[in-house]
Predict the 3D structure of the following.
Amino acid sequence: METMKGQLKDSITKIFNSFKNDSIVTVKFNKNDIVQQLETADALGTFSETINLLVGQTSEIYKQYKVLGISHNSTYEDINLEKVKSFHFKGSNITCGISIGNEYIVLGDEAEKKLHLLKKDANIINSTVFNGNPKRLCYDYCYSRVFISCHAQELYRATCLLFRNEIMKPEKMDFVKESVGALFHHNENIFLLVNNAVKQFPKSLEGELTTSFATNTTCELNGNSILEDTIIFTTKDKEIKRATLNGREIFCYKNETIKNPECLAILPSGLVLFVDRHNRGLLHGLSPDGKNHRILLQNFEKIENPMDIWLDADKETVYIAGGEYIEVYELT
């Protein structure tokens, strides 16, 4: 089965590379009826060319590709997004979210001061109240717990009892003595963005935060993610940076047209998706080498103030949240 999947993946990639101009060129040879009277082979007939547009056919191929359980790594050149659905949570102000495996989502709701545990169909199965104003979330798969950074100098953790569809009341982590922005779990460690540094938890969750490296970060609304022992994050100077976990810079991207890059996600290919929250928001794609970017979405259908972006476990489904809405997109 795995061999078959590999062969299918190679075939689909070749099909995509052949047809990524979204058209089929058909060449037909028209034979001359009076072949015996012709003196040269060139006069046997003529070629005619017909161009037929492919209307979403490669997208349909990739959908079937996904049904087989085969993932496709989108590249900077070919990435596109297709909106598949929206979720509406009336009266909420969704400021952050994460996916847990293939079944669950956790949302931070600033309006109700709650964490919501959802199934992927957006059905809220459990909620818990706490005192913080949630800003960013990350999930610790080792101990089944969510860490919540909040506006003001507060960091919380909440245990997820997924076997009984429950999220426990968050507990404040008193050992953290500074404000925290975005945070991310990697190899049993939690990395955090604070003012002018990337730091991490002690594994015991006691004592002081340890500094991974100094940099131009802020504890305000920002984004970070980790891929292959490198960290990608936004800075207070409106940059997208990628560095090793000890601070060696890999790239730093800045463009004057980007006003408020404050949340991001990274695909397995290294392509970075980030939201510029200026006006009603734009979704950008940044190439894996950090040299080029392009706009993927000019605006969102329902969301007027995008606050967070994250990926599903399959790394092919993109969630964007803000206000009362979540919009869901598939990579095609």
Summary: The domain at 81-331 is CATH 2.120.10.30 (Neuraminidase). The chain is about 10% helix and 45% strand. Confidence is low (pLDDT under 50) at residues 51-59. The first strand starts at residue 23 and ends at 31.
